[in-house]
Amino acid sequence: MTLRDLAEFPLALPGINTTLRQLLDIYCSRQGLSYHSVLDSDNLDTLAQFAVTGSAVTFGGELFVRHHLSAGKLIALNVPELKENDRSIEIQALASRHVSPVTEQFIDYIREAIVPPLR
């Protein structure tokens, strides 16, 4: 499904200061597309819950909706136009600083949670 197709649906979108929203706005501007956002929120769970009701389509990473996907409450569609702007997650720490065991556990948790990515 293309972004042009999705623009025809009511959308629940992340706030205007998020990179996902900025990518969406840039692409739509370049393609002369307009969309109708029925809900703007910086809370990803709010967007997912709203999409579960069937009131709108939302955009987000698989990590945040994995439980809805596995429960069959949502489906994931790849949007080719947004795939061109793949983003990545980096975990950074000072080279000279020792990372605590709790931080190491968190890093391990994040690594396991994001692999394999939705493609």
Automatic annotation (TrEMBL):
<dbReference type="GO" id="GO:0005829">
    <property type="term" value="C:cytosol"/>
</dbReference>
<dbReference type="InterPro" id="IPR050950">
    <property type="entry name" value="HTH-type_LysR_regulators"/>
</dbReference>
<dbReference type="InterPro" id="IPR005119">
    <property type="entry name" value="LysR_subst-bd"/>
</dbReference>
<feature type="domain" description="LysR substrate-binding">
    <location>
        <begin position="2"/>
        <end position="113"/>
    </location>
</feature>
<dbReference type="Pfam" id="PF03466">
    <property type="entry name" value="LysR_substrate"/>
</dbReference>
<protein>
    <submittedName>
        <fullName>Pca operon transcription factor PcaQ</fullName>
    </submittedName>
</protein>
<dbReference type="GO" id="GO:0006355">
    <property type="term" value="P:regulation of DNA-templated transcription"/>
</dbReference>
